Amino acid sequence: MTGDEDRPQARKPSTWTTQRWLRVGVAVSFAVLALLGVSGAWMLQQTASISKDLVDVKSPALNTAIRLESALLNQETGIRGYGLTGTKDFVAPYAQGLADEKTYAGQLTELLRDDAAAVGDLKAVQRAVAAWQERIARPVAASPPGSPSPLATQRAEQGKTLFDQVRSATRSQQERLRTDRMQARDDLMATTRLRNWVFAAIAALIVLLAGLVFEGLRRGITTPLDRLAADARAVADGDFDHPITPTGPADMRQLSGEIDFMRRRLVRALAFSEEARLRLDAQAADLQRSNAELEQFAYVASHDLQEPLRKVSSFTQLLRRRYGGQLDERADQYIDFAVDGANRMQVLINDLLAFSRVGRIHTDQKTVDLDAVLDRTLSALSVSIEEADARITHDPLPSLIADPTQMGMLWQNLIGNAVKFRRPGESPKIHVTAAQEDALWRFTVTDNGIGIAPEYADKVFVIFQRLHTKDAYAGSGIGLAMCKKIVEFHGGTISIDPHYTEGARITFTLAPRPPADPATSTLPEATLSEAELLP
After folding, report:
1. By the 8 A CB rule, do 251 and 225 touch?
2. What is the C-alpha end-to-end distance of the chain, expressed in Å?
3. Residue range 336-360: mean pLDDT, rounded
4. Of 38-52, 447-461, 499-513, 519-533, which one has max mean pLDDT?
């Protein structure tokens, strides 16, 4: 015999589910309780039957037999007194005894109808009484009153003998009834003791059944659930490699298996998440490096690139002043092109630098009175406002936690655009509103200018996107893109109202306080076409 054969085989887990265990347990419990109930009911019925027989039959029968004997004694006393004295008063006890005899004999007949032996004793008593009455009582009672009855003296010895037979019959009857009553009382006591034992056994079985039910619930439900909860807590506390041990009935083991499957999926998801986090950290490092390179580019653009550009602009302007009019007309045109291109390139670089600094350089968050900021903006734009004869009105504006420089840039671009893109021959009318909506403030800038077509409502917020040529309206195409970046940095959104057709209406929202960690906007992709670089 090999070692594997000696090793005990593992017990195969039960296929019974909790529901099946509960059904079987409840069925068995009900069957046991029903059996105990039937047994208890039978014992109660037996006790009640014996008690009823003792109370309603045996004891009343004995008492009635004693009363019957007393009635017969009254008859004998009355007849004997009447026979010896002839006094009519002795007839009354005899007559009453006859009536009582009839009554008690009837009661005994009713009480003892199911007891043949007792009925036989009663008949024996009745026969003895009938013989005594026939030979003694009725003849003496029929004698005339007033003088002793000769018949009583003649039959005195016979009367004594006959009545002794009556006494003997009643004693036998009472002895049997007394014995029956004692037996019934003993039966009642025995049945009561048995009933008490049965009820004690029922109570013990109920306690045992309850113990078995609780133990079954503990082993089949409570303990597996506690173990499952302990394993789940271990996993919840961070020990994701802790296995979920299946225990208990089949459905509990299935539940444990499903939870363990979820744990394994969670482990795989966490591994994937950790890998994604590492990739995200690497991307964040790349983004930081890109931002650093962008800052370096901004530094180069603001210093190294502008210096050669200023030289080109200065020398082309010098060339135009010195040799303007001395060369042919085409040469003068080329010089003007070069001067204008250098100036536009310088404006474009300055605007691009200002755009890249939003949210990166100007981050001085403090309470800003937007009314005051708008007034300073209108003062800075006073020349263009006066030239356009613009009329600007506004509702009371709130105070917010924001960057004051960015708020100034926001108003300057929005008001400046409303003044610049006016209808020819019509004075601009610009109105600014502010209203609180839930946790945000909503602002609108409405003008009566040339407006923005609905199909360009998104395009105008993209950097370097222009709807008009530089000859019609000057600018670099960065203004609204910068407004969008400023608004988003302060936790809001900006859009064009497509339903307003009397001009343009720009609506945007601002949070009372910027987000704790606003998303850093990156420079949108844009390409400069040759048409934007050339006049």
Report:
1. no
2. 103
3. 64
4. 499-513
Beta-bridge mates of residue 392:
430
Residues 6 or more apart whose CB falls under 8 angstroms from that of 220 comprise 18, 21, 248, 249, 252
pLDDT value for 1: 45
Distances (CA, A) of 21 to 25, 34, 220, 256, 363: 6, 19, 8, 18, 69
CB 373, CB 411: distance < 8 Å: yes
Within 8 A by CB and 6+ apart from 228, the residues are 244, 247, 252, 255, 256, 259
Could you tell me the CA-to-CA distances from 291 to 13, 434, 521, 522 in Å, in that order? 63, 35, 11, 9
Radius of gyration of the chain (CA): 62
Higher-confidence residue of 240 and 399: namely 399
Compute, in degrees rounded to 10, the torsion defined by CA atoms 440, 446, 451, 452: 0
Tokens of 58: 């045996």
Q: pLDDT band for position 484 (50/70/90)? A: confident
Task: Decide: residue 336, CB within 10 A, 0-12 exposed, 13-18 middle, 19+ buried.
Answer: middle
Give the separation between CA 446 and CA 430, rounded to whole angstroms: 6
- pLDDT for res 500: 86
User: What residues are paired with 441 via a beta bridge?
Assistant: 436, 510
Question: Distance (Å, rounded) from C-alpha 512 to C-alpha 313?
Answer: 45
Give the three-class secondary structure for 440.
strand
Q: What percent of the chain has pLDDT over 70?
A: 82
Estimate to the nearest angstrom the gap between the alpha carbon of 147 and the chain centroid.
108
Sign of torsion over alpha carbons 464, 465, 470, 472: negative
d(CA 431, CA 415): 10
The per-residue pLDDT for 523 is 38
Digit-coded pLDDT (tens) for 107-132: 888 888 888 888 888 888 889 889 88
C-alpha of 274 from chain center: 33
Cβ neighbors of 270 (< 8 A, separation 6 or more) are: 240
| H-state helical runs in 237-369 | 250-300, 306-323, 329-357
Please tell me which residue, 100 or 479, carries the higher pLDDT value: 100
